[in-house]
Amino acid sequence: MLRDMARRFVDAEVVPSYDSFEEDGLVPPSVWRKAGENGLLCAAVPEEYGGSGGHYGHEAAIIEALGHGGADGFGIALHSAIVAPYIQHYGSQEQKERWLPRLASGELIGAIAMTEPGAGSDLQGVKTSALKSGNQYVINGSKTFITNGQNANLIIVVTKTDPAAGAKGTSLIVVETEEVEGFERGRNLDKIGLKANDTSELFFNEVKVPT
């Protein structure tokens, strides 16, 4: 049933405009919100937080429907199956209540900013810093090749909070881009494929996030 519903949505709302999405280099936020209205975002998030209360198999059925329609560049997989679970499993109760329903509705679009010009999957090479100052962290650094980066307004940023502590000094800090100063988006990078999936440079210049 979910697979059929997802395919109908993709065929009606995504496929007809997909060529223009590829030309523009992103899927418009309005389409994300329509996906949320149809229960296709955060399917594995509990209903109490605005999700569908399913499991990863339901997420897979939605991702499969995108592939079936040739619309693999719609970045739902990262949003629903990576960003939302980080919030669900590691966020405080207040953070879950604040962010998960808005991720499920499409009001928020999620990204995770790991890769940098000089660091990829080796997170110990990350240079972006988040130094504590009073009751906030101050983030400085740059990221690149960030999936959903042009659209995202909720970004989990991999930072160094204590360079001397090794892995224990590497932290994930959530940035709500509409509520901070010093955050900038760079280029929407051109790629060989998945052209409708915005893949961006991100810059953090004295971005302050409350602890």
Explain this structure to me?
The chain is an alpha+beta fold. The chain has 2 domains: 107 residues, Orthogonal Bundle (Butyryl-Coa Dehydrogenase, subunit A, domain 1), CATH 1.10.540.10; 100 residues, Beta Barrel (Butyryl-CoA Dehydrogenase, subunit A, domain 2), CATH 2.40.110.10. 33% of the residues lie in helices and 25% in strands. It contains 6 helices and 7 strands; from the N terminus they run ααααααβββββββ. A 4-stranded antiparallel sheet has the order 2-3-7-6, with no helix packed on it. Strands 1-4-5 form a 3-stranded mixed sheet, with helices on one face. A hairpin with a 2-residue loop joins strand 2 and strand 3. Helix 4 packs antiparallel against helix 5 and helix 5 runs antiparallel to helix 6. The longest helix has 15 residues.
